[in-house]
Amino acid sequence: MTHPASLSDLQGIILMMSKFIKLQSFTAFLLFFALSVDICPAENSTGWKAGVARVKITPTKPMWMAGYASRNKPSEGVKLDLFAKALALEDASGSRFVMVTTDLIGIPRPLRLNVEAAFIKKFNLAASALLLNASHTHCGPEIRYERVEGETIDSAILSTSRLYTQNLEKQLIDIIEQALNDLEPASLSYTYGRAGFAMNRRTPTAKGVRNHPYPEGPVDHQVPVLKVSTPTKKLKAILFGYACHNTTMGFYQFSGDYAGFAQKFIEEEHPGTTALFMMGCGGDQNPYPRSKEGRAAQHGRALANGVETALQSYDKPVTGKLGVELVNVEIDFATPPTKKEVLALIASSNKYDKIRGTALLKQLETAGKIRTTYPYMVQVAHIGNIKLVALAGEVTIDYSLRLKKEMQGDFIWVAAYSNDVFGYVPSTRVINEGGYEAGGAMRYTRFPGPFKPTIEKKIVSTIMQLDEKLESIK
Prior knowledge:
Elements (H helix, E strand, L loop, with lengths): L6 H16 L3 H11 L12 E8 L26 E8 L5 E7 L6 H15 L6 E5 L20 H27 L2 E2 L1 E8 L3 E3 L1 E4 L2 E4 L10 E8 L5 E8 L14 H13 L4 E6 L5 E3 L7 H18 L3 E2 L4 E11 L6 H8 L4 H17 L5 E11 L2 E6 L2 E2 L1 H10 L4 E5 L8 E2 L2 H6 L21 H18 L2
Parallel strand pairs: 3-4, 11-12, 17-19, 18-20
Antiparallel strand pairs: 1-2, 1-5, 2-3, 6-10, 6-14, 7-13, 8-9, 10-11, 15-16, 16-17
Helix pairs in contact: 1-2, 3-4, 5-6, 7-8
């Protein structure tokens, strides 16, 4: 590491200066001065520190795969390895924030709570200082046990899933620790690019909303980028995002889909750099075209190109300090089904209706009623002059577009699929239009029914309150 010139160094330089002046060689003096004096400060003037770590989380044995109800057998190999990666940040005052990205379908709430408990105990940090995000790849392992209840699955496969998830929790804690131990002076900057393969998938028809490419629907093509560099200007980490389902492929091989390929391509372009993908509000967005071999890599290349373009544009320094808030806000379900309606679900020929109806009946019998609210996790982080909103569930695009318009700040970054991925989080527009994201997907959950249209107002109001709180303590 180089250091600024000391007083004795300057005295020696002055003596040499006099010799050069006597020789009337000003050019030689300038050359000597440049070689002798390090005009670059040794310490990180921004006060930021950053650390990174990663671990491969590709299952080593066949497992049931997540994401498509039509699957009827375990995995059959690996197309692209899956990873979990951690980026730890520390500001000048010593406040810390750790973001963990994963090539998984989601973060089940029990996983979040288990990792959070270990995080608090081991690192003496608040729960709010931890963000877990999933890329929502549909070619990863199924780690949501309730999703495979009622399926005809070999007990050994189920046992493998449980062991995998238990080990995953340990792996996440390990990389968090490694990232914290890796903290070193860094400069942070933000910028953004664009990628165009996402498209709204909610096409209105005379028979209702159809899952089909809808070019007139709302979309967010921004690719936000957080650039982390060492004091010597070497790229240490690139955190980037995009709002689009990771559903290019639906085969039986493990893969991070387009997000996995994008990370791979970026790291190949920048050896020694860790690329982390943070999923945005892609609940009603699909990658198009899709379902054909090679498409995931093509979309990954397009996203990586968006990041590369962002890196070549004008980035802005991250200034200020860290502040993070995490709360649960109760969001309301619509009127729950009656016992008669629950029994009708159980009598249905659809196995998912049966499973859901059975779960609701058990809830009715044990608690005396069916739940009417859900504790929804909202996290807001001020990373200096970046405002990062991390929302639970499969959030539809309206939230991202709205928050970028209504929140005040230098750079607004909205992520979804964070901390607790339990199902879809529709906007008021989506609920009014109806369709899969509005309530149809509840068939695959253990929830009583769709959410009330008040859901968007409650979530956005909570975000604004947390943002205002963080602003007040700056």
